[in-house]
């Protein structure tokens, strides 16, 4: 079952669902979702010197991103074709019996701005800020301002609390993340033997 506005307010009030800071609840609570705002940090991928990213080579993932901070009141220009990582201003704590999905806002979608390329699940048990996969599919640059509402969370109640919530065991490599976090896919167990090496991958 998807939580309605009153359900969301009740869970926030009870304190097991945490979303903070919220400065204006009336503005952020929607009929069946909660709007989240854009944070000040961005990770941009360098355009040069990347021949190919091998997910098992952590340096190839992390060395080619640069961090930019744009204070509230200033603009981050998202150019056509750009892909950058942003973050929600809010940090969340999702209780074990809820699944949250991060969605874009229609108003930004109509400007061709997408806030998650693929991954939209925020697991039961997840705690931290949410990394946004920002891209501009249009033809004109779009000015984003930290503090603006860019995304929304939809909460679904599970049939029973997750037995192994995020953060409780193996993996959970994004638990507690602050600001945008580059991919940590190299930490996946299937890459254990080849991590940091060329993994036998052919360079093309
Ligand atoms: N746009 C998103 C989507 C998810 N997350 C956070 C909340 C999720 O609970 C966590 C993990 O998401 P996935 O399970 O989709 O990612 P992985 O499977 O790659 O990570 P893991 O192996 O840690 O489960 O990342 C995020 O910050 N931004």
UniProtKB/TrEMBL annotation:
Nucleotide-binding found in the keyword field: yes
Positions contributing to dCTP binding: 105-110, 123, 131-133, 152, 166, 173, 177
Catalytic residue list: 133
Pfam family, one: DCD
Catalysed reactions, as listed in the record: dCTP + H2O + H(+) = dUTP + NH4(+)
Family matches, as InterPro entries: dCTP_deaminase, dUTPase-like_sf, dUTPase_trimeric
GO molecular function, a single term: dCTP deaminase activity
Disordered, as annotated region: 164-204
Claim: Lipid biosynthesis is one of the keywords in the record: no
Key words, A-Z: Hydrolase, Nucleotide metabolism, Nucleotide-binding
Involved pathway(s): Pyrimidine metabolism; dUMP biosynthesis; dUMP from dCTP (dUTP route): step 1/2
Enzyme Commission number(s) from the entry: 3.5.4.13
GO process annotations (BP): dUMP biosynthetic process; dUTP biosynthetic process; nucleobase-containing small molecule interconversion
Function (record text): Catalyzes the deamination of dCTP to dUTP.
Self-association state and partner proteins as the record states: Homotrimer.
Similarity-based family: Belongs to the dCTP deaminase family.
HAMAP family assigned to the protein according to its UniProt record, in alphabetical order: dCTP_deaminase (MF_00146)
NCBIfam families to which the protein is assigned, alphabetical: dCTP_deam (TIGR02274)
Protein name per the record: dCTP deaminase
Native source species: Halobellus clavatus
Species classification: Archaea, Methanobacteriati, Methanobacteriota, Stenosarchaea group, Halobacteria
Name of the encoding gene: dcd
